[in-house]
Design a protein that fits this description.
150 residues; single chain; kinase; 5 helices; globular; alpha/beta
């Protein structure tokens, strides 16, 4: 019912899974570690329901598909602009829901079919962050688990 691809498997397996997935399966793609620009251009984006990236990955993906760097001073404005810009690219499917994690700022979501992004600020911690290793994987797991409950 759900397919999560986190780019920790051979690229050929990711491509095969997306090309053969049933239309009733909800698909999630977290391109970490980031594939090459040519790999990103060959991805069957129409088979992806949700793309989960951090801000740096969103920028890399945009650069790979468009070839230009978006410049902005404000992190939230840049993330929102990146999500809108990704969705507008001809090689990218407009049906993909977009999730962009922003570290200590929180997360921005642009659902499929929506032009309005949803911003959820991060909780403030009582203690300093010790290590962020695995934070993206943990977020992705909980995000997909939330869909599996409904």
């Amino acid at each position: 019912t759900h397919l999560l691809l986190q780019n920790e498997i051979p690229w050929s397996s990711t491509i095969h899974a997306l090309r053969t997935v049933e239309s009733t399966t909800l698909t999630f793609f977290n391109p970490s570690p980031m594939p090459s620009p040519s790999q990103l251009r060959e991805l069957p984006w129409s088979a992806v329901n949700w793309l989960i990236v951090n801000e740096g990955e969103a920028q890399s993906l945009f650069d790979a598909l468009r070839g230009e760097v978006v410049d902005s001073e404000e992190a939230l404005s840049r993330a929102h602009l990146l999500l809108e810009s990704l969705r507008a690219l001809p090689g990218f499917s407009s049906s993909v829901g977009l999730v962009c994690t922003l570290g200590s700022l929180g997360v921005m979501v642009l659902p499929s079919g929506s032009v309005k992004a949803i911003y959820v600020p991060a909780l403030k911690l009582n203690r300093p962050v010790v290590d962020t290793t695995g934070a993206g994987d943990c977020f992705t797991g909980y995000f997909v688990a939330g869909f599996m409950k409904h």
